[in-house]
Every structure is written in C-alpha cells, then in structure tokens.
Design a protein that fits this description.
Helices cover about 30% and strands about 30% of the residues. It is α/β, with parallel strands linked by helices and about 220 residues long. The protein has one domain (about 30-220): Vaccinia Virus protein VP39 (Rossmann fold). An 8-stranded mixed sheet has the order 6-7-5-4-8-9-11-10, with helices on both faces. Strands 1-2-3 form a 3-stranded antiparallel sheet, with no helix packed on it. The chain is globular and about 45 Å long. The model has no long low-confidence stretch (mean pLDDT about 95).
Length: about 220
C-alpha cells in the first residue's frame, strides 16, 4: 500500500501504519508476538497435532508476516501447507524488503522476500512443504466449499472496514472451512462473535496476545 509507512512495535518488530485507513497492520505491542499467538499458537499448532497436511486461507495478506510464520512452522514440524492469501491492497516489494522479520527471527531474508515476489494469481512452491497462491481481490469474492482447515481472519478492525466483517463475508468463511476447521482472529467484539454464532460456529474466547485481553477462535462443528 503506497500510503503505508513502517513503524516499530514494542517487541522490536516492524509493522505498517496506513494513512488511508488510519490504523496499523499489527498491534503496537508487538507484530511478531501478536501473529505468533493468534495464528500459529491458537490455530496452526493445534491442527498440526493430528494432521500432516494443512490448507490455510488468509484474509488480509498485509506484510506477509502470517504467511512467513506459517512457512517457518511448516518446515519446523514437517507439515505440508497449501496457503491461499487474499489481499486487495498489496504492499510494494520495496516496503517488504525493509521489514525486519527475518532478522529478528534469525533467518535469511530470501524466503520472506520470495513471498512478496511471487506473482499474484499463480500458485508457487516456496519449499517442498509450503505452496502459496496470492489472490489480489477483496474478501467478498471468496467462493470455496469445505476447502480449508484454517482461516486466518486478519482484516482491519470492524469499525474501519465493517463490510469485511459482514454476515455475508463471515458466512463465506464458514462455507470455505472443512468440518472442525478453525477461524482465528484478533477481534473479540461482541457483534462479531454473535454473527459467528448465528452462522453456526462454536465460538471460543481465548486469552489475547500482549496488550489485548481476548482473541477469538471459531470452530465449524461437524454435523
């Protein structure tokens, strides 16, 4: 996103601040620790206990941090991951090259930059255990049926982009998940949890990352 500037969060990792949406891409308390807590610890690792293959949908590719942490976790655990990311406002490769995630995670930057270099609308292998397809689109366009084990719901907050948290979009994520699939999000607003419950999710309020009391995990219960 052209109007986004790099900021430093409290765990030492970078995030972006968007002028258009007047918000940051991650918690100011720590970008890496937020993503690790919500998406990896509360979803990826829970599913990887019993599965050697995972299909993940990310709504909001953003800086690529969630995809990068998932790539590292896939390699660490020997789990094969098929990753689909949807983003309407991609950041530039120049912006991505300035983000310090590989440095803080003590990795070479090649794989992280590759996530941003891969062309949109093309599925590519980043590693034998990790393939990714990035779709330049908005959330309203998703149309999958019983396809994913996990949805990373990482849109800007409901008061900033309410259309992305509409019952219609949440219903699409429900249909996209396999039975017993997880939707995880930093958002713990009552209206979002009520909508998830109305659709049919079993909603869990989990301890949030530093600086946030709660997060949400929603499970598509087997019928």
């Amino acid at each position: 996103m052209k109007d986004a500037s790099i900021i430093l969060t409290r765990d030492g990792s970078h995030s972006l601040a968007s002028e258009t949406f007047d918000t940051t891409y991650h918690s100011i308390h720590g970008a890496i620790q937020e993503s690790q807590h919500i998406f990896i610890n509360a979803a990826f690792r829970m599913k990887a206990v019993a599965q050697q293959e995972l299909s993940i949908l990310e709504l909001g590719f953003g800086t690529g941090l969630n995809a990068y942490l998932s790539y590292l976790e896939a390699k660490r655990r020997g789990v094969a991951v098929a990753y689909t990311a949807i983003e309407a406002y991609p950041i530039s490769l120049q912006q991505a090259s300035q983000l310090n995630y590989p440095e803080l995670l003590q990795r070479k930057p090649k794989a992280f930059l590759k996530l941003h270099q891969i062309h949109w609308e093309q599925e590519k292998k980043l590693h034998r255990l990790f393939k990714i397809e990035k779709l330049k689109s908005d959330f309203q366009q998703i149309d999958y049926e019983n396809h994913f084990d996990i949805v990373y719901f990482d849109a800007f907050a409901p008061d900033i982009q309410p259309e992305l948290w509409s019952p219609e979009v949440l219903e699409k994520t429900y249909r996209a998940l396999k039975p017993d699939g997880f939707l995880v999000t930093y958002c713990a607003k009552g209206i979002v949890k009520r909508r998830l419950k109305a659709i049919g999710f079993l909603v869990e309020a989990l301890k949030g990352p530093p600086g946030k009391r709660e997060m949400t995990r929603a499970v598509k219960v087997s019928s």
